[in-house]
Structures are given as structure tokens and as C-alpha cells.
Amino acid sequence: MTEQNASVDIKPGSHELSLQPVLSALPSFEAAARAKSFTKAAHQISLSQQSVSRFVSNLEEYLGVQLFVRKHNKIQLTDEGEKLYRYTNKSLKSLHYAINEMKTCSSLTIHCTHGFSFFWMLPRQRKIQSVFPDMDIGVVSCDKTTGDDVLPIEGRVIRVNLKDTRYAPNNSHLLFREEVFPVCSPILANRLKIDKRKLIPHDLTKLPLLNEKSKEAVGLDWKKWFEFHGINIPKQPPPVIYNHINNINDAIAGRGITLAWSGLVDNFLDNGTLIELYGMRATSDNAFYLNVPPDSEFLTDFAETFIEELA
Question: Cys staple from 25: which of 59, 184, 186, 190, with CB 3.0 to 4.6 Å?
């Protein structure tokens, strides 16, 4: 489009005709309303200031209302302009996402810790494929999913994080709350003559505890678990394992008692590989969330469907 034909005249009273002239003017109006400046808007959408101003003036003439109050080098939306901006901004965003979806492959990446990937994602792999049959969903796991040194991933990304529910942003979608409890294998319980129904929290101070120490170890640990039950221990049990997956595997092998998250070890409890020591659950203000980019309607819809069908 050349500068000479960038602006299109809109004839008042031609509502029965094509809306093409109006649609041509709306991007200039939206950019001006967002930037609060014809000059800045022109720079953003690669037109001249005169073309943007002309588009807006023609739109005002067509609608029969004033959209901006012009004061020297400043512009301010009128009430009618505010109303049109809300609809235009939302519509252009939806159009942008729709076009982006058509241009790119229906794929996304779920970024989570090794433990969450192994204990939560993997058992649900077939169901995820059945719920989203036309999507290519990849999983990238690492030690941590938050912080300045988080792993950069290209494309559409949803990150699974453990966050404080009191400060979770609006783009965080709740999966399940943090609930932690001690588990061990039937092998260890038989060897140490552990009665899972008669044990009290203080008894665990005398039993072999598996304690992980890694970037992945977030939320409740043994120290916080004992504090939750009103027990002060002299020091944290020495770290034996540096990965939550290995910790669970060591517990299954009968090497000690470990803390497990409700929602992550349900399969092991159901099939008897691990047993829960009853009456010892601890909760916190934390929860597992799906975190999506704040302006992505597509990923927001995906997250809501994902939770509804799989959580």
C-alpha cells in the first residue's frame, strides 16, 4: 500500500454498503487510541501521521460521533471513543490470534520439573492425546521452571509451577493444592515393623528419612513438615538423594521414608507399591498451577480444557 492510497474515504450514511472502508480505518483508530498519539500510532503501523489522522477523521464522519478530543499535540478518547476502542481492541486481538493459529502448527510445549513430568504427565499421556488429538504437545522437564535462569523455550509454552496461592497472578490456572505426606514401601514397613495407622509424626524422628536437596526441591520439606506438626528437630536430615524421582524410587526400594505430594504418587498408592503413613498430611498456601502468557487466548482456553479433563 502506497502513501497516496493508504487512506480510504468513508461516506456517511452508507451503512447498507460494504464495511470494508470501516474495517480499513479501525487499525489506525485502535493504534491511535492505544498510543494516545497519531504520530506514535503511525510509527507502529508503518503509515504517515497524515494517513492515520485521515482514517480517524473519516471514521468519525461515518459514525457521526467524535472519537477523540484533540488538544494541540495530544489526543484523548471521548466516551464514544472508549466504547469503540474496547470492542476494536478485543476484536483485533482475536483476529491476530486466529491468524497466528492458521500460520503455525497446532503445537505447544509444557515445561515442568522432572518429578512432575514423570509422576503426573507420563501416566496421563494417552488421555492427553485423546483430549487433544489434533495437537502436537511436547514436554520439556528440568530442575526448575521459575527464576531468571529458567530454561528458554521457543514457541507456545505453558509452565507448571508451584506457587503461593495468595500471590498467584491472573494467568495462573489452578491444578491442585500442595498436600504432602510421608510414604514408604511395604518392604520397609515390614522390616521396621511400622504400623502405618498407629504411627505419630514424632516417631519419624527415629526412622530413616530420605531428604532431597536440589533445585527441584520446592515447597514443603522435612523441616517444614515437622514444623507443621509442631515438632522442632535439631537439624535437617542429611541429604541422600538429589532428585525427587530418585527419592521416590529409593522409597519404593525400601531404603527409607520420603515425602510425597498428593496428586503425584496416586498410582503408586493405588497399586500398593507405596503406602501412606496415615494422619500425617501437611498442607501449605502453595499450589501447582498452569501458567500461560497473559495475552494468549489460545493457551488460556487450552489450560482450562486441560484442567477440566485431566486434573
Answer: 59
From residue 167, give the alpha-carbon distance in Å to each of 17, 116, 270, 299. 51, 22, 33, 21
Tell me the pairing of strands 282-291 and 157-164.
antiparallel
Cα–Cα–Cα angle for 286, 180, 174, rounded to 5 degrees = 35
pLDDT tens string 3-22: 444 444 555 444 444 577 78
pLDDT (tens digit per residue) in 86-131? 999 888 888 876 666 655 557 889 999 888 999 999 999 999 999 9
Quote the pTM value.
Answer: 0.61
Cα–Cα dist 130/125, whole Å: 9
Looking at residue 2, the DSSP 8-state letter turns out to be -
Instruction: Compute how many other C-beta atoms are within 10 angstroms of the C-beta atom of residue 191.
Output: 11
Angle between helices 20-35 and 49-63 (to 10 degrees): 120
**58: Cβ contacts below 8 Å, ≥ 6 apart:** 7, 8, 9, 10, 21, 25
Residues 201-240: pLDDT tens digits?
999 988 999 876 544 445 678 888 999 999 987 565 555 5
- State how far the Cα of 295 lies from the Cα of 207, in Å rounded to an integer: 49
Question: For residues 96 and 9, what is the distance between their CA atoms, to the nearest angstrom?
Answer: 25
E strand or H helix that includes residue 59: helix 49-63
- The residue assigned the cell 530413616 is 208
- Give the closest residue to 309 by CA, choosing from 130, 109, 122, 112: 130
Distance CA 261, CA 142 (A): 18
Query: What are the start-end ranges of the E strands in 68-221?
Result: 68-71, 74-77, 107-113, 136-142, 157-164, 172-184
Write out the E strands in 168-257: 172-184
Q: Which letter does DSSP use for residue 241 in this model?
A: B
Residue in 201, 202, 199, 220 with CA at minimum distance from that of residue 211: 220
